[in-house]
Amino acid sequence: MTETLLKIEHLVKKFDDNLILDDINLEVKKGEVIVVIGPSGCGKSTLLRCINALEPIQGGTISLDGEPIDDKSRSLSALREKIGMVFQSYELFPHLSVLNNVMLAPLKVQKRKKEEVKEEALTLLERVGLKEKADSFPRQLSGGQKQRVAIVRALCMHPEILLFDEVTAALDPEMVREVLDVILKLAAQGRTMIIVTHEMQFARAVADRILFLDGGSIIESAPPEEFFEHPKTDRAKQFLNTFTFEAVKTPHKTIKEEED
Predict the structure, then answer these.
(1) Largest Cα–Cα distance of the chain, in whole Å?
(2) Mean pLDDT score of the chain, rounded to an integer?
(3) Is the dihedral of CA 25, 11, 18, 74 positive or negative?
(4) Is 51 left (phi over 0), alpha (psi -120 to 50) or beta?
(5) Quick check: 156 and 148 in contact, CB under 8 A?
(6) Least C-beta-crowded within 10 Å: which of 69, 90, 128, 257?
């Protein structure tokens, strides 16, 4: 039986008196890809930020490998090293080169050897087609290139789980596919991921399970084919009807299909 990596029990998140997440329960197995979808403002990004303890919670528990994730925990720094988060806005340091952006945390936080980190960083950059940009600065990159660098930076920390928060939302349409392809390849490698996205084709192609959030609650949880073909709730049907037929019914090619 596949081991549970992340466990969320009865999670409650409020901003003042505003209830954002209401009794969220979720187990994520090692190697599982969860895609979280739902209308704007339903709590998707807040859920990711709670998992990484970037937001304090008002109720319930979150644990990784059986260890509680708590913003007051002494082991929080060590736990955060196991959680890679990629934001919509890249969060690259403008004064550092691509290579130094990737190397910074492994050197400063994990105290790893420079040559080892540099070799791994260049290998990862090559894997996403950016090795030749190693000495460039963020201002010299396209949005899609910056997002791929942000993914490499997260990978270089050797996380056990990756969180992606609307990583294509700020990109021009032609740059979206290059970022999604990188994430599809990570899924094919067996990476554990939780992905927040509005890209329905991508969600269907990459997910092992779809979570549909609305009003701070999980309304549906199902395999992608089941969710997109036979949503159980009227709210999910209404949400899916806001997308074009092609965006929901035609998934991206899988990595295996592209190799055949």
Answers:
(1) 55
(2) 90
(3) negative
(4) alpha
(5) no
(6) 257
> Across the chain, how many H-helices and E-strands are there?
11, 10
Q: Higher-confidence residue: 177 or 209?
A: 209
**pLDDT digit string, tens, across residues 22-36:** 999 999 999 999 999
**Closest by alpha carbon to 180, among 239, 128, 218, 245?**
128
DSSP 168: T
* pLDDT (average), residues 50-57: 93
Residue 256 pLDDT greater than 60, yes or no: no
- For the stretch 74-132, pLDDT in tens is 788 888 899 999 998 888 999 999 999 999 999 999 999 999 999 999 999 999 999 99
> For the chain, where are the E strands, in sequence order?
4-15, 18-29, 33-37, 59-64, 67-68, 83-86, 161-165, 193-196, 209-214, 217-222
Q: 79: helix, coil or strand?
A: helix
CA distances to 3, 36, 52, 120 from 26, in Å: 14, 12, 15, 33
CB atoms within 10 A of CB 245: 9
The bridge status of strand 67-68 relative to strand 83-86 is unpaired
Supply the pTM of this predicted model. Answer: 0.90
The rounded distance, in Å, linking the Cα atoms of 33 and 111 is 30
| Cα 118 from Cα 201, distance rounded (Å) | 35
Q: Which two tokens stand for residue 11?
A: 């999670």
pLDDT of 251 above 70: no
Residue with tokens 């789980």, as numbered in its chain:
161
